[in-house]
Amino acid sequence: MRYKPLPFLVYKNNRKSFSKHIEGMGLAVFNSNDIYPVSADSTLPFSQHRDIFYLSGIDQEETILVLFPGAKNPINREILFIKKTNEQIAIWEGEKLSKEKAKKLSGIENIKWLSEFESTFYDLASESDLLYFNTNEHYRAKNETETREDRFIKWAKNKYPAHKVGKSNPILQRLRAIKSNEEINQIKKACEITEKGINRIINFIKPGVWEYEIEAELIHEFTKNQSKGFAYSPIIASGKNTNILHYELNNQKCYSGDLILLDVAAEYGNYSSDLTRTLPISGKYSDRQKKVYNSVLNVKNLATKLLTPGILIADYHKEVGEIMTSELLKLGLLKKVDIQNQSAKNPAYKKYFMHGTSHHMGLDTHDYGLLSEPLKPNMVLTVEPGIYIPEEGFGIRLEDDIVIKENGEPVNLMRDIPIEAEEIETLMNS
User: Fold this and answer.
1) Handedness of CA 414, 418, 419, 420 (dihedral sign)
2) What is the Cα–Cα distance from 176 to 51, expressed in whole angstroms?
3) What 3-state class would DSSP assign to 32?
4) Whether the Cβ atoms of residue 12 and residue 22 lie closer than 8 Å to each other
5) What angle do CA 358, 59, 67 make, to 5 degrees?
6) Which of 62, 46, 45, 65 is nearest to 54 (CA)?
7) What is the pLDDT of residues 325-342, one digit of tens each?
8) Is the pLDDT confidence value at 187 over 90?
9) How many CB atoms lie within 10 A of CB 93?
10) Which of 355, 341, 325, 164 is nearest to 263 (CA)?
11) What is the DSSP pairing of strand 235-238 with strand 259-263?
């Protein structure tokens, strides 16, 4: 692995917290992700399922974690099944985790080979009357591909139809939303790598450069600093493309006078960062661009101050909408009559700012967090307002990653990445 793993006590504590929520003789199972095929014999790079990683720290395919806090034999309360290396695997892929290494990473004493899973599970299921399955219940999820987890659930329901069923995901939604200090440090490291990438390209951007050349500079800097790469598909949008929220073609030339919107960030140790900056390709914002830019920055700064324990995301977004409405009136994009004619379901500001301001982040870029529950200390959220004006040929979005604190101001993990318009102009022309 490229990254420095967290101490096994982090994962041990995560398992302990999860197990407290298992009822009676409940038994929970977590599967790693598949290696997904592309075509012929090619595959996508392996990316570990974030839930099993959160609970074990194991970053390897074909891994299964079983948590059974009520097991009669204490050694069976935590079992990790891993893939055994054979001669052919060692030659073609390199050796897989040994039992000793898996124990060191996870803190789990009972490590078994994957081939032992079915027989072991049979013994455990005979003690249990409740199986906890881990389905994807994230509010943004689009479950179009059958996963290794899905296949296990089908198998277990068919094999053990008399068992009651529980859900692991609601438990993890609450646990994963609140980060340990060690997790926050991993996110901070990802932010620091992102900062290095931005510093690399801030003088590289100029008229005539192609969007994909900027992407290449960023990936170079990220991987050089122990990241596997982008935390999500990079958005490198110049000119009118700045108005496309999820633009990912990154194949256009940058022209003088235009802006370039960079929604790009590095991962580190499976933890995401999430950044957006909007830069002037020629090194200087026009008067109109700067006015809109400063309005977006003002919304971002005021929205950040609202991220305090106890606030509901829905109420937060409503307050941010009012701040944005005020800025759009100052810019002349909205008129008082627009405000008079708006409705609760269709506020006037949505014409120019059509997405949400914040989302949870961590192991996933759009991380776990129940939107119906108040924000709590040590949650990490983005703040990313934007103003998009297709009729003027540009859009501006700014985004930082924020830690909610019990007392005092929220902490901006990206505070060292240039964001003030004048500072950006100075850096681009130095």
Assistant:
1) positive
2) 9
3) coil
4) no
5) 90
6) 65
7) 999 999 999 999 999 999
8) yes
9) 11
10) 355
11) antiparallel
**329 Cα distance to chain centroid:** 33
* pLDDT (tens digit per residue) in 77-125: 999 999 999 889 888 989 899 999 999 999 999 999 999 999 999 999 9
In whole angstroms, what is the distance from residue 303 CA to residue 290 CA? 20
Domains of the chain: 8-175 (3.40.350.10), 181-428 (3.90.230.10)
Average pLDDT over every residue of 149-167 = 98
Q: Over the stretch 339-363, which tens digit does the pLDDT of each residue have?
A: 999 999 999 999 999 999 999 999 9
Tell me the sheet residues that pair with 66: 29, 79
CB 177 within 8 A of CB 360: yes
**What are the angstrom distances between the C-alpha of 81 and each of 22, 30, 31, 57, 104?**
20, 10, 10, 13, 14
Catalytic residues: 41, 246, 263, 274, 355, 359, 366, 384, 388, 397, 399
Helix or strand or coil: residue 320?
A: helix
Residue 235 pLDDT: 98
pLDDT of residue 422: 98
Closest CA to 424 of 266, 273, 240, 283: 283
Distance of CA 219 to the CA centre of its chain: 18
DSSP-H helix ranges across 209-260? 211-224
Give residues with Cβ within 8 angstroms of 52, minimum separation 6: 30, 31, 32, 58, 63, 65
Reported as a single tens digit per residue, the pLDDT across 208-259 is 999 999 999 999 999 999 999 999 999 999 999 999 999 999 999 999 999 9
Residues belonging to the chain: 430
In the chain, % of residues over pLDDT 70:
100
d(C-alpha 56, C-alpha 176), whole Å: 13
CB 427, CB 280: distance < 8 Å: no
